[in-house]
Design a protein that fits this description.
Low-confidence stretches: none
Number of helices: 19
Number of strands: 25
Structural class: alpha/beta
Oligomer: single chain
Largest sheet: 12 strands, mixed
Distance between the termini: 19 Å
Mean pLDDT: 95
Radius of gyration: 23 Å
Length: about 550
Amino acid sequence: MCPIQEIGAELGIQPEELIFYGHYKAKLSKELEQRLQDKPEGKLILVTAVNPTPAGEGKTTVSVGLAQAMNRLGKKTVLALREPSLGPVFGIKGGAAGGGYSQVVPMEDINLHFTGDMHAITTANALLCAVIDNHLQQGNQLGIDPRRILFKRCVDMNDRALRNVVVGLGGKVNGVPREDGFQITVASEIMAILCLAGDIFDLKERLGNILVAYTYSGEPVYCRDLGVHGAMAAVMKDAIQPNLVQTLENTPALIHGGPFANIAHGCNSVKATKMALKLGDYAVTEAGFGSDLGAEKFFDIKCRAAGLKPDCVVLVATVRALKYNGGVKKEDLTTPDVEALRRGSVNLKQHIENLQKFGLPVVVALNRFASDSDEELALLDELCREMDAPVCLAEVFAKGGEGGLDLARQVLDTIQTKPSNFHTLYDVSLPVEEKVEILAKEIYRADGVDFTPQAKKSLADIQRIGLDKLPICVAKTQYSFSDDASKLGAPRNFRITVRDVKVSAGAGFIVIYTGNIMTMPGLPKAPSALNIDIDERGEIVGLF
């Protein structure tokens, strides 16, 4: 690793414009943002993927490898990624900083605490929750109905036992008893607000707009009514600044914000993406899970809110993932099976079609594994070219930037020869039911949408207080286009069921809950935490 000031110097950043967290991490200062305010922005490349499978697709690894390859070609490129959540790090996923020779470093720091952004979000969330319960205890002047408090506590850990709790037990001195619950920090509305806020003042205003509860008479209560949004913004004054690190090949990387795409909007912060565009001629960023979740939300929520216009989309796929979608068991995925690949390739085809609906050119990055046969690779090459989506092999795990040179050349050629005609999928002024219907039919290919009585009741409240003209953020399984994780490939003849609706007024979107998706994951039988340790030299081991 190079000292972080050297990475900054390559981008024209002065040492005094960095806030140092040791030798290899730094935050970008607001003074740097102000200096670059009038600088033109570079080209924006989004990396997304097919629906994830147990075999793994390597989206972050491809993002890192692509950025490294573009810099090898002499193109000034900055990477912009999300921060890993401690929940998956200690749960089922392990480290989330890329892999092989295409990863961001210092990997251990990035995965464990980093610069404290997650803790700041958790603390701000805890402050609001504490003030809500204190307001009830101190006389409840606003008339908050304890049965209709919407804002939940959070912790950045997979802890299923906290999904539903009762607080305030132990007598009058310990508060007003009521039902409550925890979300994982990355599902907190405060995380979404951090990632969509333009500056500290926008952050404070958005925090004030959080809908926290309803009164006994059915009137909305916002965070600003409790007067705590200023203190919450103060807690987050450093967390709102993007973090600068580097890849193994010293490519600059901004890592900031980390909402999940299956329960939130799945993109890194607007501030980090815009800074990457200002600092480089090209910015490579990624969105969580498959394009039906992360990419759609990147376009319809983040780009709409921030005025971003992507120039190209890279869709990551693997032969193994598509064979899994074709019905092959995980243990058999390394055995060549052209027919299973043909069956599963409908998943890839639908992702390509969906991305093209946003007016964007698509390049398919085939993350290659040693078990992939020439016949299988030829089949995918033919399929993608028929859909006007050139395919390139990516060997960035094994070879770093060198293994992504063909992909980088194809992306650069695509940007030059196929201009982006980017547009969002729906008009936010449409009724919520129509916006959900458009997504369900155009992206998921459902026959329609059914709202449960609870969802209809919640939606009626949102409409009554005038917060229904916002983009929608669908909380849905990442494993399928449908709301049923078992329906692989490109399912047809199904309907989407909306079980509840919640408005994230501060973030500026409406969350649509489908299936059995939960905002607090649980740990597996053998969590990754069992493999993580610190050795006698003080070095972290077992994060992979």
